[in-house]
C-alpha cells in the first residue's frame, strides 16, 4: 500500500463506519427495533473491514519513484575513513591501563 | 507500519467507539418518551384477617389489578418489572411497604393486562396495626432498557381501608 493508498484507506474507513452508524441508528429508530440497528451496523463493520483492511490493488496506484542505482553511483555517500578511528582509540585506552 | 493488523486494529477501535456512542444516543432517546400509564386496583374480598400467635396481623385479600403500561415501552426497552405494594403508616414507622404482587412484562403486547389474584406474597404487619387501617395501593415499575439508563416510577392509589375486626 502506497502513501496515497494509506490516506484513502484511512478516510474510507472513517467515512464508511460513520455512514453505516447514521443509517443503522436512523433505520432502527424509525422501525423501533434496536436489533435492526445492531445488525445493520455489524454488517457495515464487516463490509468496511473487507474494503479497507486487505491490501487491494487500487491502494497501489501511486508507487514511489526511487532513484536509479546509477544515480547513487554518481553521488556516493561520504564514508568516514577507518584510519582516523583506529588511531584515536588506542590513545584513549592507554590512561585506563595505567 | 501501515500493515494489515494495524488497519484492522484502527478499524475495530473506531467501530467500537461509534457503537458506544450509538448506545448512548439510544439511551438518550428514551428521555424524549413521556409515558402516560394508568392503573386501577379493586379489593374484591378480604379472604381472612387474623392475628398470628406471635402478635403480628396477617391478612389475605383478593385483588383485581388492571393497568395499561404500553406507553412505557420504547425501542430501547427490554422488559418492565412491576409490583403492587400496600403502603401505610404506623406509630413506629412513617412508611410501611408490603409487596403483594409482582410481575415481569416482556413486551408491549403484554403491557395492558387485567389480573384477578389473591395476594402473591403474604401481607403481614410487624405488629398489630392493621385493624381499620387506611392504606394506599401503589403500583411501582422499573423499566429495564436494552442499553443505558434504567427508569422507575409509580402510581399511588389512595383510599383503601382494612376491616375493623378479625375474621
Model description:
The complex is a heterodimer of chains A (98) and B (167). By secondary structure, chain A is mainly alpha-helical. Chain A has a domain at 1-54. Helices cover 70% and strands 0% of the residues of chain A. Chain A has four helices and no strands. Chain A has helices spanning 3-30, 34-52, 69-74, 82-97. The longest helix of chain A has 28 residues, at 3-30. The mean pLDDT of chain A is 83. Chain B folds into two domains: 1-32; 34-161, Immunoglobulin-like (Sandwich), CATH 2.60.40. In chain B, the strands form two sheets. In chain B, strands 1, 2, 5 and 6 form a four-stranded antiparallel β-sheet that branches. Chain B is elongated and about 85 Å long. By secondary structure, chain B is an alpha+beta fold. Chain B has one helix at 4-29; strands at residues 38-51, 57-68, 77-88, 96-105, 112-118, 123-124, 134-145, 151-161. Chain B is built from one helix and eight strands. The chains are: A mainly alpha (98), B alpha+beta (167). Chains A and B meet through helix 1 and helix 2 of A and helix 1 of B. Chain B: Belongs to the SPCS3 family. Chain B: One of its GO terms (cellular component) is signal peptidase complex. Chain B: Keywords: Endoplasmic reticulum, Membrane, Signal, Signal-anchor, Transmembrane, Transmembrane helix. Chain B: It is a single-pass type II membrane protein. Chain B: Its main location: endoplasmic reticulum. Chain A: It is a multi-pass membrane protein.
Question: Considering DSSP H and I runs of 4 or more, what fraction of the residues of chain A is helical?
Answer: over 70%
Major beta sheet of chain A, specifics?
none
Helical proportion of chain B? 10-25%
The largest interface is:
A-B, 25 and 20 residues
Average pLDDT of chain A:
83
User: Secondary-structure element order of chain A, as H and E?
Assistant: HHHH
